[in-house]
Structures are given as structure tokens and as C-alpha cells.
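Ligand: adenosine-5'-triphosphate. Inputs:
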Amino acid sequence: MTTTHAPKILFVDDIPALCEEMVTTLRGEQLDADSNLSPLAAIPEIVQGKYDLVITGLVIAELGGFEIIRRIRGAGCRTPIIMITGFGTEQSAIEAARLGVADYLTKPIERKELIARVKRVLKQYATPQTEQPGSLVRMISGDPKMNEIFEKVKTIAPTDSRVLILGETGCGKQLLAHAIHQQSQRKQEPYVEVNCAAIPANLLESELFGHEEGSFTGATKRRVGRFETAGQGTIFLDEIGELGFDLQSKLLHVLDNGKFTRVGGNKELRSSARLVSATNRDLMKEVELGRFRADLYYRLNVISIELPPLRRRPGDIGLLAQHFINQFVPKGSQPPTFTPSTVEVLRRYPWPGNVRELQNVAEQLAVLNRGPRIEATDLPSRILQARPVETISPTAQRQVQLGFRKAKDQFEKEYLLTIIQQANGNLAEAARLAEMDRGQFYRLAKRHGLTTNTDS
Ligand SMILES: Nc1ncnc2c1ncn2[C@@H]1O[C@H](COP(=O)(O)OP(=O)(O)OP(=O)(O)O)[C@@H](O)[C@H]1O
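Predicted complex:
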């Protein structure tokens, strides 16, 4: 890995003398510059995040400047690009702006002017494009939606209302539940966590409500349950969607009148703990499917908070990655920093394991990395090679969800419809346009219900 702090710049043009001149000029300013005569060879390296800035010409025989930018952006890469041209027209300046170039320069360009513009773009893009980070107890975020959630928690935490936290695995539900407790007036009281998925169903009742000695085989002495331990504090039931029907009814009873008994006992005990619950299931759907009691759902869901998955909060990815790196480096050593292009690559990955997965990657990087910067090439290959979600068209995403047969069917029908319309309803002409045999085209159209009796 590179140990230099200088940002990396690539100049793409097919005139060797120009490349040499540009590289010499930039290096003269202590900038780490390189050139490539072939856009097709340069694009994969740019997309991999190897450079912090790309400077490209407009007219290049192998691939023009605009097409280079389209391909780079099409691959989800947002590395800043400066376009330089000797053939600039108003039209090309507009197109360059439309494609989101960071700067557009027309020749002749003074050396001083070039350096100033390059440095301006580097400075602008080196500043993380995130909101001012917000925080809530041990949580931090630079995402506006998350910061709204933090504000909501600060408002609702001091009340006694029950809270249901929804969100994919690893996106911070547990941390948020704890933050609610910490921000409440109950923070001096116990905070008790129960993961309903981690305890075998037959032991969960005793775990929650306790049991009396001899109440079942193995119950050798009385055990105090988690509701009792929580006292006046907060009880957090994680993975509540995993509760069996039986326990759902018992929980409903506690929520309705605050009373419960230990397994095998008959003394009525009272719970005044505040209940916070969480699930990564679509609990409403579970209700519709008859797997979760509707009455319990409404009692749990007095205030609901939905944590967005990490891929929907791109502003958090760089921020949290750096936050975790800072935590994981050994005491006394300087934490390495992520280059802007590495953050770009991190943002392209969909993070199915959410913040937990990012935390693990950061830990790995903190342990293995020896240099002051973390380059894109230091990242695990699954992240480096991830295709950005946004480059897959919404239609393609929908089709993937349909499964191959249905997607093929849908495509065929839409294709036939379009081509029949283009041929003004004339099937013979449509078959010709589709370069298909007329009989085969007719049979296919019939199968999709696109023919009338007069067509035969
Ligand atoms: N906003 C954040 N700031 C700092 N750390 C975070 C943040 N969100 C999550 N984490 C950390 O990420 C890890 C996963 O978070 P957490 O366990 O709260 O997720 P979860 O949604 O409860 O996961 P699961 O559904 O698998 O139980 C934890 O180590 C947590 O400390």
C-alpha cells in the first residue's frame, strides 16, 4: 500500500507529449500524478478508486472524454473529474456540466491556473460530504434521517411509552434501545436485555418470568425472571418476532395489567418496567399471516422507530468506518485515514450486515493496515468488486425479484406490444421488424393474448 499523503491524480489522453507535460507540471507541485494513454485501460483502475482526481481530454481516438465520464459514473464511481479541451464549444461545456465534471478548462491554460484549479477541486472533494454528525449516547450519525431519529428519541425517552424498534440485522437496534434507557429517568434503574431468538422456546417463559423450585424437571431452586430483575428500569426484548403464540399471550397479559406469576407459582407479581422491543421481521406482515397477535402488536407499537439500513444512509459509511478505525487502532498509535476514493468504494457496497459488518471490516483494516492511509485496494475483494446498486436499473431490480420465468414472460409481452405498436398493429410487419419468422411471431403474440380473431 502507498504510504504517501499526496492525493493521486490520473491524466488520460492519447498524446504522449501532453501526458508527459501534465505529469511533470503536477509532480513539480508535489502532487502524485500519473498518466494513461488508453482510456479503456484507465477506466477499471479509476472505478476501483485508485485515484482521487481524474483529468481527461475531450477528443481521444480510443474513447472520447464524455464517454469516459459516462462509463466511470455508470459504474457508480464519483471520483472528481476535470475536463481539458482545445476544442471547447458552448455545447461541450454544457454537456460536461450535465455529466457532473468538477471543472472544465479550455486551452491554452496557464500553468499557474491549472495548478490552482486542480488544488481547488482536490480540496473541495477531500472534505467529507456529510452532514454535521449527530450523536445519541454511543451512537453517531451523519445522516439526516438518523439525526431525526436521535431527536425523536430525546423527546420520547423520558416518557413511559413502549417503543418498538424495526430494522435489518446489525443496523443499531440494540444500541438504540440502550440509548432510550440512558436518556430516560429510569437510567439509574436496571437495564435488562433478552434476546428472544437466542433462548430455547421451552426455557423462555422461565427466563422472562422466573420459576418456582420444582416447577419442572431441572428447576432445582427458585429463579427470578428478567421482568422481576428489571424492576423500575427498562426491559428490552430483542427479536420479539420470534416469540411463540403461548408466550405472546402471557406477555400481553403483563402489558395489560402489569401482573405475572413465576412458572409453577401462584403468587402474583407486578412489573413496572418499561418495555422496549425490536425485530428485523416485518411484524405487521406477521400479524397478517396470523403468526403474531394483533393485540400484542398494537400494545408494543405505541411508538415505533424504523432504523434505515446502512446502504440507505451513504453519509454514515465514511463517518462510521473512520469512527471504528479510531476505536480499533492500538492505544498511542495514529489511526490511518480513509482516502475519499476509498470511501466512494465503501459507499458502493450494499452492506447486507449493516453497521456490524462495517465494524468488522474496520477492525480487520485497523489490524492489518500499517500505512497512514487506507486505499481502496486495501479493502476486502467483495467490497472492491461490488457493483453499485444504483447502476442496476429499477426495471432490472424488479425483474430479478420476479424470478427468471416470470421476468422472461414479462419481457416478451412488453417487447411484442411495443413492436406491434410500432408496426401499427400489422403482425406481419411486426414480425419483420423483430426479425422473426411470421408463424413463430404470431404464436408468441397469441400466447400473450395480443392477437384478435382477425389476425389469423
Ligand atoms: N450509529 C452507530 N454508531 C456507532 N456504533 C453503531 C451504530 N449503529 C450500530 N453500531 C454498532 O454496530 C453493531 C451492531 O449494532 P446493534 O447490535 O445495535 O444492531 P442490531 O440491529 O441490534 O442487530 P441484530 O438485529 O443483529 O441484533 C454494534 O457493535 C453497535 O455498537
